[in-house]
Structure to design on (82 residues):
């Protein structure tokens, strides 16, 4: 009888030991300390009003690349905060 009680106690203890402890993750608010990149001076801002069509198109294409690079920097800053 005593051996049966010991086996029962060991079985119960072994059952409790086999279960891994529960992990609880609690989100904690952290302030974002990312500095935004400075706004670039775009190519069309320096363009004179009497510039030819070739110069206007070149400036617009350059501005598109500048905007894409600036947006990529802004998205990287936003991802760092989330």
């Amino acid at each position: 009888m005593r051996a049966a009680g010991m086996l029962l106690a060991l079985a119960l203890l072994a059952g409790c030991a086999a279960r891994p402890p529960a992990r609880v993750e609690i989100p904690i608010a952290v302030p974002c300390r990312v500095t935004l990149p400075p706004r670039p001076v775009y190519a069309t801002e320096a363009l004179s009003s009497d510039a030819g069509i070739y110069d206007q198109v070149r400036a617009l294409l350059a501005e598109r690349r500048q905007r894409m690079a600036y947006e990529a920097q802004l998205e990287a800053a936003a991802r760092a905060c989330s």
